[in-house]
């Protein structure tokens, strides 16, 4: 039985504890993703209300993510994550209670989701920065792959679990499960114990919020492999993801078999993502960002695949391949950040990464529909591909991306004033 447990979990007890707590939390998030829209609809909300409540958790991310990065580099990161989990547990519990008592309103749910989004904004940079403090550099890729595996598995298991919970206990019951997952994660973080880090002296200096933010931005600007990868991800979030979230369902409704066929494609993508995480766990590329850039090019073909006119089975198989690419890219990218960025500024650098993803994706989601109405769905999807794939190939053309080693060189993690 022990042989079935990955070595990194057996060897790294601190990480193993964190992994269990975060796995439960991720599964709870997948349940909430499905249950929350049904919660809005159950109180008489419209489709616009569903969008309003969903957007309410994103807006604080735009405002507070950079602040979350600064604070995560100032104080122990597990404390920030613990506070965030407790807040999110309280929010989901409050939503469930409002639903159970019949007192929920769209406005109340939206306001609670704003609070949820603020907690999220502080959690994400802290989470990225905590992992290198628990693991040695050569274990980071395995740990990130395991986290990705749980996230990808949640894409397949979460919706099914959410559907069963909503049917049995209503949206409120499903959201109570999410609240319990945050409580479990908080319990693990509370028992994690002190975690040291090389950033203690830097945090003690307290340069001032804007000055510390500029230090983080300088780390991004001075590393061409970092800012070029962030630009490629910006294109992916603005151009590629709308083809999945907006135009894919539209095409399924108009030309395929509707929601059933789209579900097949989404599940295939999720299964491919799981395979990608397994590959990321086992592979040890000498030049990880070169592999990541190729994976991004594969992932960027999703719009072309969806709009190809091929049979649904073929589209599903090809989407599974892009799922492999997506998982490989994000595991190798996050590991490279954790290896090559100084620990004392890592959360600030990752906050810029999270901000780009959250800030720009809504722009693509808003523009995709009008463009498809004006140009046609297939032309829009082909146009998306014409933008996204060259952007990924340009990333591969960057020498700093192709040549970045798997391990940091001696003295490479210093911070210049």
UniProtKB/TrEMBL annotation:
Signal peptide: none annotated. Keywords: Cell membrane, Membrane, Transmembrane, Transmembrane helix. One of its GO terms (cellular component) is plasma membrane. Pfam families: MFS_1. CDD domains: MFS_MefA_like (cd06173). The chain crosses the membrane at residues 50-72, 93-115, 149-169, 224-250, 262-281, 288-306, 312-333, 354-372, 378-397. It is a multi-pass membrane protein. InterPro entries: MFS (IPR011701), MFS_trans_sf (IPR036259). GO terms for molecular function: transmembrane transporter activity. It is found in: Cell membrane. This is MFS transporter. It comes from Kitasatospora cheerisanensis KCTC 2395.
């Amino acid at each position: 039985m022990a042989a079935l447990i990955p070595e990194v979990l057996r060897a790294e007890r601190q990480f193993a504890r964190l992994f269990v707590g975060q796995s439960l939390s991720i599964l709870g998030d997948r349940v909430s993703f499905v249950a929350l829209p049904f919660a809005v609809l159950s109180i008489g909300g419209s489709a616009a209300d569903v969008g309003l409540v969903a957007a309410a958790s994103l807006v604080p991310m735009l405002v507070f993510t950079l602040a979350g990065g600064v604070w995560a580099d100032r104080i122990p990161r597990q404390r920030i994550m613990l506070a965030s989990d407790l807040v999110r547990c309280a929010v989901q519990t409050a939503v469930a209670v409002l639903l159970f008592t019949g007192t929920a309103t769209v406005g109340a749910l939206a306001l609670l989701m704003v609070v949820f989004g603020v907690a999220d904004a502080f959690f994400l940079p802290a989470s990225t920065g905590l992992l290198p403090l628990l693991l040695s550099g050569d274990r980071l890729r395995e740990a990130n792959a395991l986290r990705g595996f749980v996230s990808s598995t949640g894409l397949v298991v979460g919706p099914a679990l959410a559907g069963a919970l909503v049917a049995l206990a209503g949206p409120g019951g499903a959201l109570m499960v999410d609240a319990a997952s945050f409580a479990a994660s908080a319990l693990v973080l509370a028992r994690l114990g002190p975690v040291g880090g090389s950033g203690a002296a830097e945090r003690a200096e307290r340069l001032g919020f804007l000055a510390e933010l500029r230090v983080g931005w300088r780390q991004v600007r001075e590393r061409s492999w970092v800012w070029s990868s962030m630009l490629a991800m910006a294109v992916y979030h603005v151009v590629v993801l709308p083809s999945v979230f907006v135009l894919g369902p539209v095409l399924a409704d108009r030309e395929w078999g509707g929601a059933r066929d789209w579900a097949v494609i989404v599940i295939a993508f999720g299964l491919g993502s799981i395979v990608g995480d397994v590959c990321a766990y086992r592979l040890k590329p000498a030049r990880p960002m070169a592999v990541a850039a190729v994976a991004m090019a594969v992932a960027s073909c999703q719009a072309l695949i969806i709009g190809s006119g091929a049979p649904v089975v073929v589209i599903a198989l090809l989407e599974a391949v892009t799922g492999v690419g997506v998982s490989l890219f994000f595991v190798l990218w996050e590991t490279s950040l954790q290896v090559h960025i100084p620990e004392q500024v890592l959360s600030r650098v990752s906050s810029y990464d999270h901000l780009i993803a959250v800030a720009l994706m809504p722009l693509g989601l808003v523009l995709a529909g009008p463009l498809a109405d004006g140009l046609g769905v297939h032309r829009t999807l082909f146009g998306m591909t014409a933008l996204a794939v060259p952007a990924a190939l340009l990333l591969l053309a960057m020498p700093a991306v192709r040549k970045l080693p798997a391990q940091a060189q001696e003295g490479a993690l210093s911070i210049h004033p």
